[in-house]
Amino acid sequence: MKRVLIFMTILTIGVLYSCSKGNGELIGVQGREEWYQPDPFGMLFIPMGSYNMGPSDQDVPYALTAQSRTVSVQAFYMDQTEISNNEYRQFVHHVRDSIARRILGEEVDEETYLIMTNEYDEDFDPPIIDWYAKLEYNNPKYLENREALEPMYYSPGERFLRRREFDVRKLNYTYYWIDYRSAAKRSNRDALLGEEGARHAFSLDRSKFLMRDVINVYPDTLAWIHDFTHSFNEPLTQNYFWHPAYDDYPVVGISWKQAKAFCIWRTSLLHSFLQEMGGTIVNDFRLPTESEWEYAARGGLDLSPYPWGGPYIRNSRGCFLGNFKPMRGNYIDDGGFNTVKINSYNPNDFGLYCMAGNVSEWTSNAFDESAYNFAHDLNPDYLYDAKDEDPEVLKRKVIRGGSWKDIGYYLQTGTRTYEYQDTAKCYVGFRCVMTYLGRSKEDNL
To answer: Rg of the Cα trace of the chain?
Structure first.
């Protein structure tokens, strides 16, 4: 019996040893956890596919900015709705609270600890800033901290009716990204790597491609006035972004760079949570490419000029199917006036709301009238020609979908136009996308 036990023990050790060595075969790294792409909250899965990008109807203004061509896009997630005022406000509050915490971080006392970490530890020095702790800006208990934060507010001479309001000009967000396209250029690699070339690619200095920018994140609420002449929109300037009545309306007055910064912040927010929970990070949030946006807007209806299918903007009962400028300017005939709630009207076959009308949406791409002629047919993503030194050309970004103030032509899935990236309009918003990790969800079945 003893011999049998000894033999079994030796056999077990041998098996375990051989497994750890893989029997000398290539078996890959063992013990890695199975992983499946979680669906981001508020986003819908858009499967990979090929479609005919471009006009599906006659080019009414004869703009010639798009030609029909077959392109393919990979699987991705897209926000079911446009980003709302309340969702964007979370970003603004994060920037505001971060500035406040940095100010308080310069003072080391018990009250500051309470604001920063919700606890006080006499043995810990220096303090750790809790970026998620709730800040009580007007609590009399923290009078000293309130005085420290006074620079965040408008000066007495700028206050209206003595209201103590945050100075939104100071809500600046510093963000970073990697310029992969510059890093991938042969000229940059050769300049950094020298004569040794790609054999020593590990020596590439990444700092040259780590980009940094600072942007004020508060929406341009005056857009409601400066976008129109002799039109009374002052109540929207005063209330549209901050009032609870408009929480579920699309955020507007956002420049292209502000939308990009929002995507970077949203990525950081999710990745920080996943890392704290011991999870694995996912792809970044970003603005959709022009080809992704059009593919999602079509909802699987390849040759339909509108997201809901068919060549008409009304349904069988004569009701308009989107929020735009019907007829000769009867704005309320479609049930709207200016913007409407982000989940208004019926979604398309992918489940996406307001892919036509309500607000136009930023895409990541630069606008060039002839981009369809030279952009790749696999995940088309035209940015700009680096040789073009015209700053006005470089700043043009594609917007899609049409808005509440546009005629029906701009609601078509194949219609493209642009705005300048440093402008903010009361009829332009955005939504985010995230590239799916893998080929398709079918791979996980």
So the answer is: 27
- Given a contact cutoff of 8 angstroms between Cβ atoms, the answer to whether 53 and 267 are in contact is no
Tell me the one-letter amino acid at 345: Y
- Of the candidates 310, 289, 307, 288, the one whose C-alpha atom is nearest the C-alpha of residue 298 is 307
Domains along the chain with CATH numbers: 45-84+249-445 (3.90.1580.10), 176-210 (no CATH)
Alpha-carbon span 12 to 397, nearest angstrom: 65
**Quick one: how far is CA 445 from the chain centroid?**
29
Instruction: Collapse the DSSP code of 427 into the 3-class scheme (helix H, G, I; strand E, B; otherwise coil) and give the result.
Output: coil
Phi, psi (5° rounding) for residue 146? Answer: -65, -40
Angle at 384 between CA 300 and CA 393, to 5 degrees: 110
pLDDT digits (tens, 9 = 90+) for 154-180: 988 998 988 888 999 999 999 998 888
pLDDT digits (tens, 9 = 90+) for 324-381: 999 888 899 888 999 999 999 999 999 999 999 999 999 999 999 888 988 899 999 9
> What is the DSSP annotation of 109-148?
SHHHHHHHHSS--TT--S----TTSPP-TT-GGGHHHHHH
Whether residue 200 has pLDDT greater than 60: no
d(CA 321, CA 318): 9
Structural contact between residues 425 and 253, judged by C-beta atoms closer than 8 angstroms: yes
Backbone angles phi, psi at 177, to 5 degrees: -155, 165
pTM for the model stands at: 0.87
* 39-63 mean pLDDT: 91
Position 199 scores a pLDDT of 46
